[in-house]
Amino acid sequence: MKKIFNWRLSLIFIILLAAFLRFYMLGSIPSGLTNDEAGVGWDAYSILLTGRDQWNQFLPLHFIAFGDYPAPLLRYLTVPSILFFGLNSFSVRFPSALFGVISVLLLFFLGKKLFNEKIGLFASFLLAISPWAIGLSRVTIEPNIAITIFLFSFFIYLHSLKKINYLYISVLLFALVLYTYSAYVLFLPLVAVLLLFWNKKIVFKNYKQYLIAFILFVIVLIPNFLTKDTTAGVRFTQVGIINNVNSIGLINTLNDERGACQKTYISLICKIADNKVFLFTSTFAKNYTAHFNINFLYNNGTETQYSILPQRGLDYVFGVLLLILGLFRILKYRDKNGFLIILLLLIAPIPDSLTGAGHYGRASIMIPFLLIIEGIGLFYLIELISRPDYKYLKKLSYIFISFIVFFSVFIFWINYTTYFKNYYSLYSQYGYEDLMKTVFSQRNKYDRIYISRHLNDTKQYVYYLFYNKYSPSNFQKKVNVSFHEASDGWISVDKIDNIYFVQNLPTISTFSAQMNYTALFISNPVDFPKTLKPLFTIKDKLGNILFEGINASDLLKYYKEQRINVSST
Hints:
Blueprint: H1 2-23, H2 35-50, H3 73-85, H4 89-114, H5 117-129, H6 131-137, H7 142-160, H8 166-178, H9 184-198, H10 200-205, H11 207-221, H12 231-239, H13 245-262, H14 267-273, H15 276-290, H16 294-299, H17 318-333, H18 336-347, H19 350-353, H20 367-386, H21 391-423, H22 432-442, E1 448-452, H23 460-467, H24 472-477, E2 481-485, E3 491-496, E4 499-502, H25 508-514, E5 519-523, E6 536-539, E7 545-551, H26 552-561
Parallel strand pairs: 1-4, 1-5
Antiparallel strand pairs: 2-3, 3-4, 5-7, 6-7
C-alpha cells in the first residue's frame, strides 16, 4: 500500500506542477495572440452564437479559416471554453493548456504500461517541465491537442493486445487524431504499419477483429475526404518542400546549375547530375537529420518557435545526457518496448521533414517518445547512483541531480515570464488588441480607415473581429465585406465596413486627387514623416512604436507646407 501511495502522491505533485506551468498568467504570456489563435477563437465564437463559421458554413468538418483549411476539433473544443470564460486570450488558450496537463498524466500511464512506475513518473515529470511542451500548451495550437489524443489512443491500443475489444476504441481515437492535426495524416499510417508488424502474432490471431477495426477506421474518416479541400492536402501544397517559397529558390538554383552544366556537357549528363528527384530527396534528408541536431533540440532551437519560446533549445541541456543514457539502457538490455519507442521517435520527424528543417509545431510529434527515452535515461542514472555502498555519495548525487533540474527549470521559467514576455511579444502580434479597439472607437469619425500590413504582415482583419466582438452573423453575410483568394489558396479580407486592410497605404497623390472622403492612415512609423505628430501610437512591451495613426488630410497638409510634390509620395 505504501508503494502505491508513493507513486500516486508523486503523480499528483507532477500534475499540479504541470498545471501551474501551463495555466499561470495564461492569458497574458505569451503577450498578444497570433493570427492563428485569434482565428480559432473567432471561428469558435461564431459557431457558439450562430452554429456557423466565419465563412457561413454550418457546423463544418472542414473550416476554411485563412484558406489553410485547418482540422476542426480544436475549434469545437474552444466553443465551450468561450461560453464559460468569454471571448478573450485565456478562453482561447484554455483547451490547449488543459490537454497539455492531461498529456502529462497519459504519459505516466503509457510509461508505466510499457516499462514500470518509475519510468512513467520520470517521463511525465520531464514532460511537465519541458519548455517545448509548456510553450505548446500555452498557445492555441492543434499539435498539442493531437499529442494528447494520440497518447490516449496508443495507451488503449496497448490494452487491446490483451483485451481485443479495446481495439475498436483505440481505432476511433486514432481517427480522431486526424480530425485534429494534418501532420498525423502521414505519421499515423506509419505507426499503424509498425504496430501491425510489431505485434504480428496477435494480429494474425485476431485478424477478423483487426479487419473490422480497419473498416471502422475508414468509415469514420470518410467525411474527412469528401471534399477536395482536405486539411492535409491544402496545407501540404502551401508548405511542402515541393511548393514552398524556399523550394522555389532551390529550383531556380537547380535550373542555373543545369544551365551552367549544359555549356560544357551534353544535356543527358546534366539531367542526371542536376535533377529534381535528387534535389528534393537530399533536401528531405537534410531536413530529417536536422531534427536530431543538438542545436535544434538542446541549444538554439528553431526560428519558428519565437511565438512560444525565446531562442533556446526546445529541451534542457541535461536532456542530452538522459537521452544517451536512455538509448544505452535500451540497447544494453535489448528492451523490446524500448526499441518500439526508438522507432516511433525515428519516424516522428518524417511529416515535418517534407515541409522544412524543424517547425516547432509539426516536429512536436517527437516530444512524447523523446521524453520517454529521457525518462528511461533518468531511471538508469538513478540505478547507477544507487549501486555504491557509500551512503553520503548517494545523497550528494541525488542532491546534485535535483539541483541541476531545479536550477534549469527555474532559469527557464524566470526567462519565459519576463524576458520572453516582453522581448518576443512581436512574434505573438502584441499590440493588435490596443490597435483594433482604437480603430473601433475611431470608425465613425472617418469615411475610411486604412491599416497597412507593411512590415507587419498578418491576417489583420481577424483581430478587428476578435477584439471588438464583431457580430458573426453580419460578417457571415459579407455585407460591406470584400476579400480575395490568392493563387496559393490563402484568403485575404480587404475591407470590413469602412476599415480597409491593405499591403501599402494609398499614395497621397491618389488621396489628394479624390479629396471626397476623410481618411485615417495607420501603419508603421517608417511610413510617415518623423516630424508629423500622430493622432495615436501603439507600442510594444518595450515601448517601441508598432503603429501610428495619422489623419490623411494632416499628411497632405504637411507635404504642401514642405513644398513636396505629392505626385511622388
